[in-house]
Design goal:
The protein contains eight helices and twelve strands. With about 300 residues, it is an alpha+beta fold. It has one domain: Alpha-Beta Complex (Sulfite Oxidase, Chain A, domain 2). The strands form two sheets. Strands 3, 4, 7, 8, 9, 11 and 12 form a seven-stranded mixed sheet that branches. It has a five-stranded mixed sheet with strand order 2-1-10-5-6. The N and C termini lie far apart (about 65 Å).
Length: about 300
């Protein structure tokens, strides 16, 4: 058998490193979750998982830039240890907590969720984390608490998108998000610390982030440093920046268009796409397909107005 030496192999026959790496990551993820698919839990979708390389290289994270490739490019040196979280407001246990102490002993779970972005793309992500309800129970909110507000770290020296003069879509820093308390304690609501069985990458929100799979992706605040329990509805960052497009609830509703585009269909990240292949898009599901678990929380509300 003739074996070619490296010097004999033309460059055209050598697989580029990024293609090889992405393929290897995809195969590792596929094999791992093929086995997991035989024993998926009550909250898991059965849809194919988005390749790891796609899910970690195409992200909305304006703190690192407005292009979806910027977070993976610029978040690598972001420091996630040590990490302090301030808990305040209408709660029995307000304090500055070391993150490890705050979440110590909470039960970690693996969940495979559909995720829908407001721009019309979607993913299927295997998250690792714990129910936010468990943490809230530990902190003991007062009866008067109706909402929980979250804030992201403000660190312009590490997050280039927060630097003075950097255009960030009209957002003011730090990034602020909120949930009604019944939403925060819904069994689907997860605080993620990992992804694809690995530690959460910086570009995906390390060291911990919010995951609410029935809402649009901008509701998934990342790198949380503050939780505040309040009686009145918080003003989230996108509500403040563009209220015509982004409401407090952010529930996936295909019948309510963004001012600039339709929300009726979506493109799954990692699947074939072209400008002319409209059949690769799929219909957007109400509540992103999680209506059975969450629709009762919004009974009696006008979901075209309370978007």
């Amino acid at each position: 058998m003739l074996i070619k030496r490296p010097s004999d192999i033309p460059s055209s026959e050598i697989t580029p490193e990024n293609v090889y790496t992405n393929r290897r990551q995809f195969l590792q993820t596929s094999f791992a979750f093929l086995a997991a698919g035989q024993a998926r839990g009550p909250y898991d979708t059965t849809e194919p998982v988005t390749p790891y390389a796609d899910a970690t290289s195409y992200n909305n994270y304006y703190e690192f830039g407005t292009d979806k490739r910027h977070p993976a490019r610029y978040a690598g040196s972001f420091k996630t240890k040590p990490w302090t979280v301030r808990v305040e407001g209408l709660v029995k246990k307000p304090a500055n907590y070391n993150l490890e102490d705050l979440i110590k002993g909470l039960t970690t779970e693996d969940r495979i969720y559909r995720m829908r972005c407001v721009e019309g793309w979607s993913m299927v992500i295997p998250w690792r984390g714990f129910p936010l309800a468990d943490l809230i129970k530990r902190l003991e909110p007062l009866p008067s608490a109706k909402y929980v507000e979250f804030k992201t770290l403000h660190a312009p020296d590490q997050m280039r998108g927060q630097a003075p003069g950097f255009w960030a879509g009209g957002l003011n820093w730090p990034y602020t998000e909120g949930l009604r308390l019944d939403e925060a304690t819904n069994p689907l609501t997860l605080i993620a610390t990992g992804i694809y069985g690995r530690t959460l990458p910086n570009q995906n929100g390390a060291p911990w982030r919010l995951v609410t799979p029935w809402k649009y992706g901008f509701k998934g605040i990342k790198a949380i440093v503050r939780m505040r329990f309040v009686e009145k509805q918080p003003i989230s960052s996108w509500m403040e920046a563009f209220p015509e497009a982004y409401g407090f609830y952010a529930n996936v509703n295909p019948s309510v268009d963004h001012p600039n585009f339709s929300q009726a269909t979506e493109q799954r990240l990692g699947e074939p796409w072209s400008l002319f292949a409209g059949n690769t898009r799929r219909a957007t599901l109400m509540f992103n397909g999680y209506a059975a678990q969450v629709a009762s929380m919004y009974r009696g509300m006008d979901l075209r107005r309370d978007y």
